[in-house]
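#struct-pred

JT: dropping the chains for the assembly here, can someone run the whole complex?
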Amino acid sequence: MTYIPHSPKERDEMLAAIGVEKMEDLFTAIPEKHRYPELNLPDALTEMEVATELSEIAQVNETTQDLVSFLGAGVYNHYIPAAIDHILTRGEFYTAYTPYQPEISQGTLQAIFEYQSLIAHLTGMDVANASHYDGATAVAEAVNMAMAQFRGKRKKIIMSASVHPQYRATTDTYTQFAEVEFVSAEASQNASESLIPLIDKNTALVVVQYPDFFGRIFDYTKLGEAAHEAGALFCIVANPTALGILKTPGEMGADMVVGEGQPLGIPMSYGGPYLGFFTTRNKFVRKMAGRLVGESVDARGQRAFVLTLTPREQHIKRERATSNICSNQGLLALAAGVYMSLLGQNGMKQVAELCYHKAHYAVEKIAEIDGFDLSFDTPFFHEFAVTCPEPVAEINAYLLEHGILGGYDLGEEYPEMGNQMLIAVTEMNSKEEIDAFVAVLSEVNHEH
Amino acid sequence: MNIKLDAAPKIVEPTVYELSSPGRIGVDFPDPDVPRAELPDALLRAELPLPELSEVDVVRHFVKLSTFNYSVDSGFYPLGSCTMKYNPKINEDTARLPGFANLHPLQPIETTQGALVLMFQMQEWLKEISGFDAVTLQPAAGAHGEFVGTLMIRAYHEDRKDTKRVKMLVPDSSHGTNPATSAMTGLKVIQIPSDERGNVDLDALRAEADETLAGMMLTNPNTLGLFDENVEEICKIVHDAGGLMYGDGANMNAMLGITKMAHLGFDVMHYNLHKTFATPHGGGGPGSGPVGVVERLARFLPAPIVDIVEEEADGLPPLYGLVDPSSTIGRIKAFHGHFGIIVRAFTYIAMHGADGLRDVSEYAVLNANYLLARLRDTYHVPYDRICMHEFVAEGRWKDAPDIHALDIAKRLMDYGFHPPTNYFPLIVHEALMIEPTETENKVTLDSFVDAMLKIADEAHATPDLLHAAPTSTPFGRLDEVKAAKDLILCCWLPEDYENQ
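RK: done, full complex below.
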């Protein structure tokens, strides 16, 4: 099955208009020995057959709907209001290109402008861009922006070890051929204090996560002040759900606030596509990579929106651009914009509080189990580390037998944290589910 | 253009902030079923300046906004270099299957075999389609794929202790991402001119092919829509100098089943699933930019890729897992790629098979050549030979000196079409880059030609019509200077209005 609408007669008329006899005549520029190779692919399926086949493949997976999930580590199982997908599946949105022609793209442009505004207000910052690929690449772009700010004169990035390990790994890959040094204090320490002694005049940027990878909440105000005293920039990687109730990174003096927008109404979809949000202060807007939508007017005196500050971008500046990025996660920015509009200030607060209360209930119950201890005695949001009596992989296998998707095994990325599990609780977890999780965990000591 | 207004601009559709009314709720959540824990007072925010709307407010607002958009679902979108083909609806359904949408990327692989087998199969199919030996699905977009490719090229040379290779060649017709990507990888960008047939100038290439050459980034067919007739010679010159060939797969829609890029001499190439394999552009993203490589680069691929971790045995199927290549350049985003986009492209390839994919490219090229044949007498085509999936015409006439490509583009909107790409590639004056794709029928193409011919007449007889265009769209031309000068990048909050 293809989506080619030509009749044989039309094809022949078109070939005649071109002045060739057959399709093959259009491809004579291709070296003959490499023309029309054999293509070994399965036979084509009809829509009916492919629908069945894909359903069968999908059913092989055990999802967070089939299982009770306490897995987070950067991706969270939240309720997605029905209206979002009804808006996203409007062809006018999802089958449009980048809004380079503003006269016929005001839908996309105003939606992005609103997304920029909602994200800026949620993070307490001046301005957001139209988005990056995901949280990890947003962090990497923040590092690039700081390096560019100092034109390579400052070569040190203080990257807290309690920033998501995959974000740090991505940043390492992005900067592997740049002259830059990454330093950090130990992951278990309180980054709001432990990083301060590392800051010096060679520091371009300090990056911390909020809540951090272990779910802990620290007030980074003093760290930000220390960074600024040394002339360095300060970036906070934030969880947008937590910002429904928590003090904003903007209030803590961040110069950039970036993060993963997946919790804002985007399905987990086995890792993507997601949404990297990126905000900064007005004074740095020209240094920021990525698309930006600004307000203007049209020739008829109507308020209208348009891509602006494009001279920073690759299609104009080529090798002198701020980044090579030439897309944004447009449809997912739309999803996040609709999510924040639907929830509004009340809903965002409600979700954040539900996560908070349920996670704290879970902690209280888990801490009562013999052999399980809370790893950190610090305020946390909806995720926390627990030291377990057995290897996490074994506990998770046991939980899975009971239909429970356990937490993230911290030993995988932090060798010093063997037997520690990172557990996430969201509004999707009922008290019954938490109690059942606790009940299975309490069997662990007896079963092994 | 610069627009002077006598009064405040008219608001066609208010923003969500302007629509907000205190106390409205769009979605409600249950009360907690657990005891409330004490909130950390010192760490709470004072206010949350988000709008308050009901669900119907939100739905009507965004539906209204959607009506301001032109899209593939609403009409012909011949935007060169973007492959705006029809996006089949079934792909949207398969990507949203609960078994895919509700899958956490860090689940144990035993629970995600469906997703992993699909990704493994997709890697195999992409290898087969272009003749490469290994594929990563991780890159999030074409530009991201380019970044992966150039990092791998650098890693390859460094691995051989061949550290003086700092130079990346790009043709002057290349996409802006090519030089921007090379610069991001710390490589020095050298531009190579095109010859009079639109091919890479071989003498200029030979002059740069020395021991400092890291590689060359080449789009083929190139951005003129032309297949470079010397592609094998180009690859040989670069290889003989010790460099590697990067293929920008942006224009793969002309090449499916027609030729395999690895056979031509490319060492590494990105695919654009959102162009060639019909996944929707989403108003600017998400895309997906898998990268294929020949054997000698396979161990540098970004981590992880999908592979068989336990062979089939005792009647059990093989176990698929995530594997780090031995000399990997590292991770280039979180998790395993834009899985939801990969499912859409997988569905598309499964429905086409080998013959269907070959048809896609043949008809894409047929449509482009048909438009070229019908327009070339009216619009000058500077590099005029049989084109591939697109061609580039000039939007200017000596006897209509005030008319620019931009005016033609805007006037096309009045005839109900999305304009072609204009002012790219940079080597054509007043460029109009036209890519019809295979999913448009002859009737549509003929009506587009009629509009283009009429506009050419208007350009000479009534040029003001073009300068005033568009007039039939919901919005007119924008004041882009004002946007860049005022830099209003964020909605005002209600208190900002009061303070004004």
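JT: nice. The mean pLDDT of chain A is 96. Chain A is about 35% helix and 15% strand.
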